[in-house]
Each structure stands twice: as structure tokens, then as C-alpha cells.
Amino acid sequence: MNTFGVKLRLTTFGESHGEGIGGVIDGLPSGIKIDLEFIQNELNKRKPGSKFGTSRKESDTIEILSGVFDGFSTGTPIGLLIKNENQKSKDYDNIKDLFRPGHADFTYMQKFGIRDYRGGGRSSARESAIRVAGGALAQIFLNEFNISVESGIYGIGKNYGDLMKADFEFAKKSEIFSLFPNLEAEFKKEILNARNSHDSVGGSVLTIIRNPPVGLGEVLYDKFDARIGAAMMGINAVKAVEIGLGVNSSKTKGSFNNDEINKKGFISNNSGGILGGITNGDDVVIKTHFKPTPSIFLPQNTIDKFGNEVRCELRGRHDPCVAVRGSVVATAMARLIVADMMLLNASSKLENLKKIYI
Ligand SMILES: Cc1cc2nc3c(=O)[nH]c(=O)nc-3n(C[C@H](O)[C@H](O)[C@H](O)COP(=O)(O)O)c2cc1C
Questions:
Q1: 292 is in an annotated binding site
Q2: Low pLDDT (below 50) residues in the chain
Q3: Which domains does the chain have, with CATH numbers?
Q4: Is 293 part of any known ligand binding site?
Q5: Is the CB of 148 under 6 A from ligand 1?
Q6: What was the pLDDT predicted at 192?
Q7: In the prediction, which pLDDT does 95 show?
């Protein structure tokens, strides 16, 4: 499936080394002022080119092809396009017939019987730029309701920060979106060490949805946490997602884990803002874990498409730690989910419908 969402739907197309990547956002209400500069700024955060990411140079300039008139959304499909500018398919000639360990080469070949070896083809995270553009459009809608979404890095390799001290203002200024001023240098060192030793390193991202309305999430098979889980797991290289206390909640007692309530609201937020699959109005807290980049320059054992055992010796340009740019994609996916769930929730009560139709 290349389409995502129920009421607000994003369809994407394109490959890493094709002509370009693009998408269609359908279901965004009319009358929203579209801020192209904001969309471009969001794309610039994910853009390749820094020494902590791949050296592939792409301007990632977004073009809006349809669905916007006089600066406002028209309620019709919004067409998005980014042209690829810096494909170097020759770099991939030597791995044309073999499967990179840890990448999707093997499974795409088994499933489709066609090997687009140029930069990973459709399995490449190049596609995620369009998710970021779609997420930015969703955020412009969320701004109308004072809802925001932020992400940052809270762990690289074996270095993890204290989530209670996460500093999102610092993350905005940090080259690697570090949530901790005192750990930024350590995080950078981990990434550069991985790069210099021709290896890669994993990382973890904290995403917070601030000021979500109560009631988002469709019982029973489209729970808010289930949708968040699927959205984040759908990002390349994501291997685990946690909500609130997450994995650690299984190590606690109910007396600790339960969020007690008083007149002002929930006293703690171990639930991560979701109960019974429905948002409770507290911040939604999401942790997303990325594996190390599969493409590394150390020689590894693999097979070719004829079944011969061969050594895999890679060239090309790769992120040493995909969690860094992946954090921007995590923000985008959360934005798309919140906007979609808001549109879905609008018809959950008769009184809501009466406000429109009577
Ligand atoms: C922003 C981002 C950038 C990525 N860049 C690379 C890369 O440069 N090289 C690479 O081998 N994998 C990269 N990946 C990861 C692969 O796309 C991913 O691991 C691969 O498609 C296999 O899928 P899986 O890890 O989800 O099983 C990137 C992922 C993200 C989110």
C-alpha cells in the first residue's frame, strides 16, 4: 500500500534514483491558508547533506501542483512534487545483483521479482520527504486548533538521556536534534565514530503531541495507539514504538502505573495520553526506536540473486545514523495521524452533526 490514512489520505510515489518523488494529500478541508515556506522549512530539516547524514545533495524543493488557489486549500487533492537532483546510480553498479545485509533488497526481489538496485529504489527513505511535506500540511491544519508535535533524539547507541529533562527548545537548534545540551557532544561523537569506522549506529526518538483534544481514536480496531504504532513502524528502519511508559510499564505495579485523577486532570502521564485507544487530553508521548543504517562500508557476507555466496563491499552515500533525519519523519507521521483522527472523530456524536446540518 502506498496510501496512508482514512479521512486525510496521503499517497506517495517515486524512487530514490527516479525522476522525482511525489504525493497526493486528499481530504484536507478547504479554507486553510497554505504556508509554503513552512512546508519547505520542514523539508529542510530532513534534507540530506550534513556531516551527520548522507552526503547526497538534494535541494528538496517542493512544488504544489494542485488543490491550492489564491493561497488557500480548495478541499480538492493537493499534488506534491520534489524532483531528484543528485542521483548517482553508478555507485550501486557493484551491488546490482547482490543483496545488502539488513536492507530491503532481498525481500523486494522475492516479492516483485524486479531489482531496482539504484539507491534502494522505492524501499529507500527518499520517499519519506513527501511524508514530511504531507505532515507539514497536516500541521498547518492543526495550528488552527493550537495542537503541536515535536520530536528529538534521546538516545544514540548506548547513550541515553533522562526523558524528564528533554529540552525541545534545545533540540530545535541542535544539528542532530539532541534533546539534551549535555549529551549532544556525546551523541555526535557516537555518530562520527560510526561513520569513521565505516559502520552505523542506532538511535531513539521522543515525539510529543501537545494539546491533543480528548476523544481521538476509533474503537476498537483503529485505536489511537494502534494507528500511531503502525505509522511509526511504517518509517524505514523503525524496529519498536512505545507509548507513555511503554515497555517499562510491564515492570511496574498498578499502584504505580495508574495515572490518578483530580479535578484538574491526570496527576501523572504514564499512559502517554491514551486510554482505551482514545486520547485523554494529556500530551501523547511516543518513543520510536531506529536500527543502525543497513548500508555500511565494512565488507559483509551475502548472496547474489543467482544464489552464490559473495562479499558485499559497498560504495555510495549513506546516513551513519538514520534516527536523526528519521525524527523529522516521526513528527510528520504523528501530525498526519492526529489530523486524520480529528476528521474521523468529528462524526462521533449526533450533536456534532446537528451543528452542521440543522
Ligand atoms: C531518514 C532515513 C534515511 C535513511 N537512509 C538510509 C541510508 O542512507 N542507507 C541505508 O542503507 N538505509 C537508510 N535508511 C534505512 C532504510 O531505508 C531501511 O533500513 C531499509 O529500507 C530496510 O527497511 P527496514 O529497516 O525497515 O527493515 C534510512 C531511513 C530513514 C528513516
A1: yes
A2: none
A3: 3-357 (3.60.150.10)
A4: yes
A5: no
A6: 96
A7: 85
pLDDT of residue 99: 95
Round the average pLDDT of the chain to a whole number and report it. Answer: 95
Q: Is 288 in the pocket of ligand 1 (CB under 6 A)?
A: no
Beta strands in 89-222 (DSSP E): 148-156, 159-160, 203-210
Ligand 1 atom with least separation from CA of 239:
26
Distance between CA 137 and CA 80 in Å, rounded? Answer: 11
Note if the bond before 220 is cis, omega within 30 degrees.
Answer: yes
Distance 76 CA to ligand 1 centre (A): 32
Q: Which of 295, 310, 322 is nearest to 100 (CA)?
A: 295
The ligand 1 atom at the shortest distance from the C-alpha of residue 328 is 1
Work out the number of other CB atoms within 10 angstroms of the CB of residue 2.
11
Pocket perturbation via mutation, ligand 1, pick of 117, 293, 315, 327 by most ligand atoms within 8 A of CB? 293
pLDDT of residue 32: 98
Ligand 1 center to residue 322 CA distance, Å? 7
